[in-house]
Amino acid sequence: MSIFYHVVATLLILAEYLPWLVLTASVVSINKCPGSSLGNRLYVPASAVNSLERVTFRLRNEFKACKNELHFASELRADTSLKSNDTIGEIGLKTIDMSYFTTDGLLRHGSDYYYPEEYCISSFSGGNVKATVCKPLCKRNRPCIRKCCPIGEVMDMESAGCKPAGGKLWSPVLYTNETHNLSDEEREKIRPHFINLPPSCKYSNGSASEEYSSIPLRPLRVNEYQLETIPMRLLKDGSLIYYAITDKWETIPKDLFCIDGMQNFGEVKSYTGLPSDQIVFSCVDYYTANVI
């Protein structure tokens, strides 16, 4: 019995004085840049991770150079106290430019999220990073999609803002047309590039506008009545189509909308991950098919 308590006491001491002690076998791998002096592990403080928890990444030498490289140096901060809200009517969307890691190895820089194979780390010290990313071309075979909330969060209709999704990640259903959606295997080959930005709406004089339409993709039941929604499809090229008042499918350009999951809407409280539990904000008046 005394040996058992001795082992426990030793582990507690190690946990206190070696904060980077990793007790899990599952470690995400990311790339270090060619010529980097970094070792085989990258220890990231909680302030630089979206979950505000320390993470350890395994470093590998598998970064492939690309034509559209961007080199940057930045302080990584994911402290929620630094996040601000832009208002969309009564809905708040986080749009502040930040740089941080997600727990599964994505790197956010500005409003863009990069998969582990799309960036490499040159140096990392005290939360300051030097990195290289491959900027997306946003072509048909690799769409760029505006996600209303940061990754790991969805639109919470009760609090009118972005909130953690309870461990479920929003993953959009992509279509080739109004009737055919891609399989999970087909979608995985595309791997959309996500950008945390609201729609880029403008007034007639060209100045920026914060007047948007919002359409939940799930009908809302109020007592014995059901409020219908507007059929919408997110296409694999990153554009959005909807069935308009003109009785035909109309297209919303990629920069005029954002889409995300939603929770606390009607009788459904938690985010389910279902295609119906999504919401679209756009610069289009759906009932006239005109840009606001």
Number of helical elements: 2
Beta-sheet strand percentage?
Answer: 35-45%
List low-pLDDT spans: 7-25, 81-90
Mean pLDDT: 81
Taken in chain order, the helices and strands follow as HEEEEEEEEEEEEEEHEEEEEEEEEEE
Shape, per Cα inertia axes: globular
Helix/strand/pairing category: mainly beta
Structure description:
This protein has 292 residues and is mainly β. It is 8% helix and 36% strand. About 10% of the residues have low confidence.
Topology:
Layout: H1 2-17, E1 29-32, E2 41-44, E3 55-60, E4 69-75, E5 85-88, E6 91-94, E7 98-101, E8 107-110, E9 112-114, E10 119-125, E11 128-134, E12 144-146, E13 153-156, E14 161-164, H2 184-190, E15 193-195, E16 213-216, E17 220-222, E18 225-227, E19 232-234, E20 240-243, E21 249-252, E22 257-263, E23 278-282, E24 284-285, E25 290-291
Parallel strand pairs: 1-3, 1-10, 12-15, 13-22
Antiparallel strand pairs: 2-3, 4-11, 5-6, 7-8, 8-9, 10-11, 13-14, 16-23, 17-18, 19-20, 20-21, 22-23, 24-25
Annotation keywords:
five-stranded mixed β-sheet; 2 helices; 25 strands; globular; single chain; mainly beta; 292 residues; six-stranded mixed β-sheet
Compact description:
It comes from Allacma fusca. This protein is mainly β.
